[in-house]
Amino acid sequence: DSGVTQTPKHLITATGQRVTLRCSPRSGDLSVYWYQQSLDQGLQFLIQYYNGEERAKGNILERFSAQQFPDLHSELNLSSLELGDSALYFCASSVGVLSNQPQHFGDGTRLSIL
Amino acid sequence: QQPVQSPQAVILREGEDAVINCSSSKALYSVHWYRQKHGEAPVFLMILLKGGEQKGHEKISASFNEKKQQSSLYLTASQLSYSGTYFCGTETRDAGGTSYGKLTFGQGTILTVHP
User: Fold this and answer.
1) Do B47 and A108 touch (CB under 8 A)?
2) Separation CA B84–CA B45 (nearest Å)
3) Is B47 close to A97, i.e. CB distance below 8 A?
4) Which of B29, B87, B108 sits opposite A99 (nearest CB)?
5) What residue spans of chain A are helical by DSSP H?
6) CA distance linking residue B99 with residue B91, whole number of Å
7) Which of B30, B99, B102 sits opposite A45 (nearest CB)?
8) Which residues of B touch A49 (CB under 8 A)?
9) What is the pLDDT along chain A (114 residues), one digit of tens a residue?
10) Which residues contact A6 (CB under 8 A, 6 or more apart)?
């Protein structure tokens, strides 16, 4: 158990819909990272927050947005969903933003678009 | 740009050794190694930092060649539990030298250990 909690574990929805994925980091971790994992793309970095502020952005689509709240939990919002958005979405957390700190991954949310 | 891992897949018998390589086209500041079993979350194994500091796992070792922009993960005396997909995540810095801990992951190396 990494200590990172993601909900829900599974989501099934239709094209055009909007969903929210939630992540609670490990106790004491201030950084939260979101990744998308699909079969043909591997682990793709989406976005990082540190103590409530956005710190780094990857190839995140404009239809996707995220935020980190004062209690440090984070939400990833996916809108106007397309079939290609079906993937496993991971949240990871680390103590800070330094290179020598491991990222600890949650169990992921599996999103299926029908 | 995504680092390149090699080989893409390797099959071993228990007790055999394996080396997984990770190459980048950019100068690296750190390399992180993770193992992911099917349907599970990636699990941290090792961090290698520019300058030689290394943090990680007892039974797995790694090297970091800054000049060649490469890292290698060494799995010795493999066990059944080593099976999984191994990912390297590379960290580079922007023009100002700032790093935010953002990792770019390779495509993964599938390791299968048989009895």
Assistant:
1) no
2) 12
3) no
4) B29
5) none
6) 8
7) B102
8) none
9) 889 999 999 999 999 999 999 999 999 999 999 999 997 678 999 999 999 999 988 889 999 999 999 999 999 999 999 999 999 999 999 998 777 789 999 999 999 999
10) A21, A22, A23, A24, A89, A90, A91, A106, A107, A108, A109
